[in-house]
Automatic annotation (TrEMBL):
It catalyses: L-aspartate + ATP = 4-phospho-L-aspartate + ADP. Pfam families: AA_kinase, ACT_9. The keyword ATP-binding applies. Its EC number is 2.7.2.4. This is Aspartokinase.
C-alpha cells in the first residue's frame, strides 16, 4: 500500500488534476492520497494558501474579503465543474469560505491556522468528489477522524506520538482516503498547521502511521537535483539519496521536500520517492534509509543565505570552565537560536539566522557578551551564506575538504568558517553572500562532470 501526496502545482487546475486522477488509477496500491491546496497555474499566479493569507489580513483589518472569497472559490469551481462533481460539494466549499467572515479576530490565536487550513481541507473534499465522479471508491477524511493529533503551536505544529496508533487503525481501509495536508488537530480540538509547505509532513506521518511500503511525493520536477538549477545549467538528477544526506541538503535550501517530513519516514524506515506529476513514468529520486553503495562521493551542493556570525576570542578560553555555557545563556536570555558553533582554542564563532536580530537586539546582545565574557575580541559579520557539500561517500574518501577549499580558492572566495560535523556527511562553509553563485559553480564542477 502506498501513500501519495500531491503538491499544489499538481492540483492547480483541472488539467493538472486529470494527470493526478490517471496516476491514482494507474496503481491500485495508491490508497492514501494527501493533498495540498491548489497552487500556481503559471509563474505569476497566486497559490490558494497565499490568497488565504490575504484574506486573513483583510479580516484583521476589518475590510471586506468578498473578492478574495470569490477568487478562492473560483479555483475550486473550475476543477469541480470540469469533472462534474456532485453539486453539493461546490456549494459546501462556498459556504465554508463564506463562514470565514464570522470568525472572531480578536484574541483568537488559531485564526491564521483555521483560515489557512481551508485551502487543503476544501481541496481534499473536492478531490474525493473528483475521484468518485471518475468511478473510484474514494472518500474525504478529516485530520481529526484519521487521528492527526498535533501540538498546540500555531503555524508550527508537530505531530504527537499518540497519533500514530490511531492513524494505523485506518490501515485496512478498503477505500481510497483523501486526506488534507498541512494541518492537524490539537488535543483541545483546535486547528494547527505545520510550517509552510507542510503537506509533505502530513504525507510522511500518514505513511509512517500506515506502515506503507512507499511514500510517493508528487511535485513538478523530475526529482532532486545535485545543485540548484537556477545556478547550475542542467545539474545532475540524484537517483538515490539517504535520509541523512537529504536532511543536510533540505536544511540548506533544497526545498523540493520539507525537511521536517524526513523524520517520520526515517523513524518508520519508509522509503520516499520524489516524482513528477507531469512526467510520472520518470523514476524520480529515491530517499532511502541505507544506500546500496555510494556511487558518488558528493551527492549534492546547496546553499542558504541570511546568516550572521558572532566571533568571540579570548586568550586561554580553553582553560575557562563554563565559557561556552555563559555565551549560550546570553543567547537564551535573548531567545535567540543558533545554528552552528565552530570553535578554536581561543575563540568561537556563533552562526545564527539574521532574521532573529534587530539593530537594537544586536547592540544589546553584543553589549551583554562584552560585559559578561570580557573577550579580547568581539565582532559580528552579516550577509553570510552557508554552502554545504553533502555525501556519505566522503567518509571513505580522503581529500574532499582539500578539493572543496581549493575550488573556493580558485575563485578567490574567502572562507569565513568551515564546519565538518563528526558524522562526516557534509562539510559546511560560511562565505559572503556575494560569492554564493561562484562558490556553488566552482564546487559543482569539481565534483560533477
Ligand atoms: N499549502 C501550504 C503552503 O503553501 C502547504 C503545502 O502546500 O504543503 O504552504
Amino acid at each position: 500500500m502506498k501513500v501519495a501526496k500531491f503538491g499544489g502545482s499538481s492540483l492547480a487546475s483541472s488539467d493538472q488534476v486529470r494527470k493526478v486522477v490517471n496516476i491514482i488509477k494507474d496503481d491500485p496500491a495508491r490508497r492514501y492520497i494527501v493533498v495540498s491546496a491548489p497552487g500556481k497555474r503559471h509563474s505569476d499566479d497566486i497559490k490558494v494558501t497565499d490568497l488565504l493569507i490575504s484574506l486573513h489580513d483583510k479580516l484583521i483589518a476589518g475590510k471586506d474579503p468578498s473578492r478574495l472569497i470569490e477568487a478562492i472559490y473560483n479555483r475550486y469551481e473550475e476543477i469541480g465543474q470540469a469533472f462534474h462533481v456532485d453539486a453539493h460539494i461546490l456549494t459546501a466549499i462556498r459556504e465554508d469560505l463564506e463562514k470565514l467572515r464570522m470568525l472572531e479576530t480578536k484574541g483568537n490565536e488559531h485564526l491564521y491556522d483555521i483560515i489557512l487550513s481551508r485551502g487543503e481541507d476544501n481541496n481534499a473534499r473536492l478531490i474525493a468528489g473528483v475521484l468518485k465522479a471518475e468511478g473510484l471508491k474514494a472518500r474525504y477524511i478529516s485530520p481529526k477522524e484519521i487521528g492527526m493529533y498535533v501540538t498546540d503551536e500555531p503555524k508550527n505544529a508537530r505531530i504527537l506520538n499518540k497519533a500514530y496508533p490511531i492513524i494505523h487503525k485506518w490501515a485496512k481501509n478498503p477505500d481510497i482516503l483523501v486526506i488534507p495536508g498541512f494541518f492537524g488537530i490539537t488535543e483541545e480540538g483546535n486547528i494547527c498547521t505545520f510550517s509552510r509547505g507542510g503537506s509533505d509532513i502530513t504525507g510522511a506521518i500518514i505513511a509512517a502511521g500506515m506502515n506503507a511500503e512507499l511514500y510517493e511525493n508528487f511535485t513538478d520536477v523530475n526529482g532532486i537535483y545535485s545543485a540548484h538549477p537556477g545556478i547550475i545549467h542542467e545539474p545532475e538528477l540524484i537517483k538515490e539519496i539517504s535520509y541523512r544526506e537529504m536532511r543536510e541538503l533540505a536544511y540548506a535550501g533544497f526545498s523540493v521536500f520539507h525537511d521536517e517530513a524526513l523524520i517520520p519516514s526515517f523513524q518508520a524506515k519508509i522509503p520516499v520517492v520524489i516524482k513528477n506529476t507531469n512526467n510520472p513514468t520518470h523514476p524520480g529520486t529515491q530517499i532511502v534509509h541505507e544506500k546500496h553503495k555510494h556511487e558518488k562521493t558528493v551527492v549534492g551542493i546547496a546553499s542558504d543565505g541570511g546568516f550572521s556570525m558572532i566571533y568571540i576570542s579570548k586568550y586561554l578560553m580553553n582553560r575557562e570552565v563554563g565559557f561556552t555555557l555563559r555565551v549560550l545563556q546570553i543567547l537564551k536570555d535573548f531567545d535567540i537560536k543558533y545554528e552552528h558553533m565552530p570553535s578554536g582554542i581561543d575563540d568561537i564563532s556563533i552562526i545564527l539566522r539574521a532574521n532573529q536580530l534587530t539593530e537594537e537586539t544586536e547592540e544589546e546582545l553584543l553589549r551583554k557578551i562584552a560585559y559578561e565574557i570580557d573577550p579580547d575580541e568581539l565582532r559580528i559579520k552579516h550577509n553570510i551564506t552557508m554552502v554545504v557539500v553533502v555525501g556519505e561517500g566522503m567518509r571513505e574518501k580522503v581529500g574532499v575538504t582539500a578539493e572543496s577549499t581549493a575550488a573556493l580558492a580558485r575563485k578567490k572566495i574567502n572562507i569565513e568558517m568551515i564546519n565538518q560535523g563528526s558524522s562526516e556527511v557534509s562539510i559546511m562553509f560560511g562565505i559572503q553572500d556575494k560569492d554564493e553563485k561562484a562558490a556553488i559553480r566552482s564546487l559543482y564542477y569539481t565534483f560533477f562532470d
